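ok here's trimethyllysine dioxygenase:
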Amino acid sequence: MHFIARPLVASVARRAITLSARDAAAQPSARFLATAATGATTFTTVQVPMGKESVTLHSIWLRDHCRCPACWHPVTKQRLVETQTIPKDLAATDVKQTDAQVQITWKDGHVSTFDKAWLKDHAYGKTAQFKDLEETYEPALWGSEIAQNPPSVPYDEVMDPSNAGLRKWLENIAIHGFSFVKGVPASVEKSKELVARITFIRESHYGGYWDFTPNLEHGDTAYTSLALPAHTDTTYFTDPVGLQMFHLLEHRGTGGESLLVDGFKVAAELRRLHPDAYVTLSTTKVAAHCAGDADTYIYPKPRYHALLNHDERGKLVQIRYNNNDRSVLNHLSFDQVAAYYDALQKWQAIAHERKDLEYWFPLGPGTVVIFDNWRVMHARAAFTGYRRLTGCYVNGDDWRSRLRTVAGVNRKMC
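and the structure:
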């Protein structure tokens, strides 16, 4: 499989707005001062010139998005204007344009200046559309063949203050869903310093940075020597953890190999082979819980969530799958129960039985693996002997924020 290792800008359907380089002179244009009402709410509008073309926008939207220092803080990127104070019948008294900008003078004397490039990116139309104007990364789906060239970054590069290695590490996660770091000193402190290059550790009922052996310190099968099937963690959280990191510091025994499965690849296969099952697991919501410790009883709010979760454009963004942590099914109808189990078994047949989708590998001192818990499922073979595993959780929003900042993403959506 060919892996796409470069950032891609998501394609966005935009209205065609032509920018003219010849319209250099600033000039008032009375024909752009329309104050047409828009139905019962009587919001006025302005025809905004964009070279030889124009676009009709609501006055309240333009005033609400004014980028002058009194309305929008240039450092914090936060709105300062109180939207409630903007009149619904706000009228423009003057509209001028240059090659690059549009200047609107409002009836109250306030002046709003917009870059035409900004307006081209953000101007809306009669049909609603969700826009992703910032740099994003195209997931490269994989199966067992990833073993030939798994994504990896040397420890020294990740720790380098230039952030080039850190960026590569985070881009590996964004594209492939996981990455190794090789040459990590075999200690808890150095492992903590490594994850701190991304962001802070997410605390949970398991603690911050874990350091555990199979001693059932917590009521969870992870704290045993049993085999664990492929799953994602913390399906019982309202906001499941974003990243999970492991560093095996010691193992005196046999077994315990680690498994990663690309959940997005499994979903793609389910959609190809069983489209009805894909729809069922995208629309049927079930509950999950964590209740193995006497002082812990966690479940999310809202209580129920789908296994396959999509964004507003229909793109798969999150897998929530842990068969062990699924709660009692007592809320579905008779027909829904049959449809759900049929879909779940088809999912499991792909996730647990397709050897061509499994990537098995041994962990050991000096090698850290980190993976996107919203995408990649992990598992473990049964083992014998003493096994000391360390690791931690990281918030999803925070690791994605760190990637954007080290990659220099233009903050167009502010």
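+1. The chain is about 20% helix and 25% strand.
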